[in-house]
Amino acid sequence: MPEEQLLQYFSGTDYEWLFIGSFWDRLQTSAVSQHAKKWSPGLKTHPWVSSLMTIVNTTIHLMEQDLPDDIMFCIYIYYDAHVPLMCAVEDAQEEHIKASFHKYQPKTQNVLQEGNLPDIINYQLQCSFWNENKPKMKPIVHLMCKALPQRCQIRNLREIIANYCQTDDLVHHFMRSALLCSLLGMYKHCKTRLNWKSRKQVLRRFVYLKPNRMQMQEWLFAMYQHLLFYIIKEFLTFSMGMIPALYDELCRTYKWHTFERTVHAAMDNVRASIQTNVLRSNVIAEWLGNVESTLMQVNKQQLGNLFRPQRQTFTQTVIQICNRIDETQMQVNPHIAFPMEYIHLLRKMVQRVPRGKVRIDWLKYFNVKETTIDALQNMYEHYQQNTYRSDLRKLVQNSSRNDFECIRELFAAFQQNHHDIRVFMLPKHFYDAQCVALRRRYGLKPEDELEPHVGEVFVCLSCNTFKGFIIKKTSKCNNLFANGHHKIIVDDETLKCYCGRRCEKTDTKKRKRIAVEAFLEGVELEEHRKRRAKKDWKTHRKTMQNELCAKTECVKFNMLGCLFQFYENLYLFCPSCGNPTVFHSSQYDENGFTCGQCLKEGTLYTNICCFMCNTFRGKDSWTTITSIDQDKKVKSLPICNGCYKPWLRQYEMPIPMEVLEQQRKKSAQRKNPKA
User: Fold this and answer.
1) Which of these, 199, 267, 320, 564, could form a disulfide with 571 (CB 3.0-4.6 Å)?
2) pLDDT digits over 530-589, tens only?
3) What is the spatial distance between Cα 491 and Cα 489, in angstroms, rounded to a whole number?
4) List of residues 6+ apart from 54 with CB closer than 8 A
5) 333-365 as b/e: b if 16+ CB within 10 A
6) Could you tell me if 594 and 586 are in contact, meaning their C-beta atoms sit under 8 angstroms apart?
7) 156 C-beta neighbours (distance < 10 Å), count
8) Burial of 455 by CB count in 10 Å (0-12 exposed, 13-18 middle, 19+ buried)?
9) What span, in angstroms and rounded, lies between the C-alpha atoms of 661 and 639?
């Protein structure tokens, strides 16, 4: 609370009484003010009003002193808490004074400042910071995206804010609160705040005489585009620091510190201008005079610091362009001039550098032209401001085959090692649960140590496939009892493992039928030849990929206790059954995180057997039925496909346990008549 911080700071001084006890205590203990009476209402003969004058004038005196920033911020909060009561006293008659004091009792916890703004921090993670893909998003997220330091964001902003404030309550509440917070300077980073007189006027119009939704729409939200633009920007400079990981990434990717300094300086100038205008006029339109033109000029000066959001990173763009050129030229073998030893060397080099920038300067070690390296360096450094796609395509196309392949493999190595393949350590309770599950899966006793091979998985870096038998919650066919590795070739002599994946040669893509007359007239003949040539190229390319996979040794590592990111998926061992699974939030339930299959019926699949025939669960699909016993207790029972007869399907649930027991005995007698 501000009073506690102020009391601690002013303890032992002449101002200590101002922050001791409650507001009612201060009304009784306040002495005659020794400071200038800058605020003096009409009914100052009333004892409560006289005490309020002392409190307010002493606070105004403190506001004019040179104090630490955090103390000044608390004093402004303390003053703002008294403003509604000050306005009520100015407007009230003597018989209504006490009612006004009770109605507008000062409470610092209700003062509008950065800590009382609407909590929309979680929505910030949904903003499109890094690319221009803009899926359907919530109105408040769309507004925050508009205020990011990216190009072409202010277009139609006035209409967007006006529409959202009419239709969305959260947007209206946020814009109303952020507007007043910025005008008063109630962020801790503000160097300029309105003085006591201007603050009273602004708070009178927007808090004491609180305008309704339509009035706010008419006065502010339907105009003042640049002011609203910078109000949202100032909120972002305050709130982004609350998500440290996101803030660090923004500072690395954008010129975020420059953005913060620019916004803060612009809004400080706006507050200085508004303070002057408020003292001259009582009209809101005149308060905000010249603000739009000032902010428009500031916005134009910042064009050099704005970023153009990209659909892809520079690394992904280079790889995509190179692959597209090979496809256009129908290049079957992607590795002609650049040896495979160099590719493996590049991967090992990339593994030794920390995650960050691409080391384009390494190209000189593989005899790439200096002009090509310099051009790539320049494009890489300024890619956030300009895409350079056409220039990059020309540069790569005009390079020699050795330079072309070297550029592609360098960026592919950085993309693969620093972005597509990563390992994250899991918490200890996940690791312990995985150890228990893997011991059960491999038939080990609880006291046995885990062998080195327990938890090992393979991946192929040629076709980018994970070689474990993956269990997915949504898959129709599961591999709960599968062990080993998927599509692996083992060398009998060296016992090395190679990828055994085979690409399908058939083209399943449906194409539009072409009339025979079109071929006879020659209209579609050329198009058909091109299509046929591309299909043949794809077949040869798949054959080449199969050969590359067969020659590529799979990478082996132990995934126990790890969350393994491999391209688009996150892999880990299921803590319940020990099978490899894909990490997804939908797989959290009352049992914690599971693969979604092993505890589908509420019991571990290795312990489930059919109630009728006592068959343990294998690859069969199961049905759960509900039964009721003599004590009226309802229980779920698993039934295998073989025992799930038509009479069970047609029986009204829950089924009496006596009926099920009779059918169970009949089933046992049919299997063993001599029993």
Assistant:
1) 564
2) 888 888 888 888 888 888 888 888 999 899 999 999 988 999 998 888 889 998 878 887
3) 7
4) 30, 31, 32, 33
5) ebeeebeeebbeebbebbeeeeeeebebebbee
6) no
7) 10
8) buried
9) 13
